[in-house]
Amino acid sequence: MVNLILCGGSGTRLWPLSRKKTPKQFARIFRDRSLFEEVLVRNRPLCNRFVVATNVEHLSLVESQMVRMGIERVEGLLEPMGRNTAPAIALILLGLPREELVLVSPSDHRITKHDRYAEAVRRAARLAEQGFLVTFGITPQYAETGYGYIEADGENVLSFREKPDRTTAEAYLASGRYYWNSGMFVFSAGTLLDELSRCAPEVFDAAQRTYARAEKGNLLRPRPEDMATIPSISIDYAVMEKSKRVKVVACDPGWSDLGSFDALYDETRGDAENAALADDATFLNSRRCLVVGGEKPIILEGVEDLIVVQTDDTTLIMRRGQSQNVRDVLKVVAERRPDLL
Question: What integer pLDDT is reported at residue 29 of this predicted model?
Answer without folding.
Answer: 85
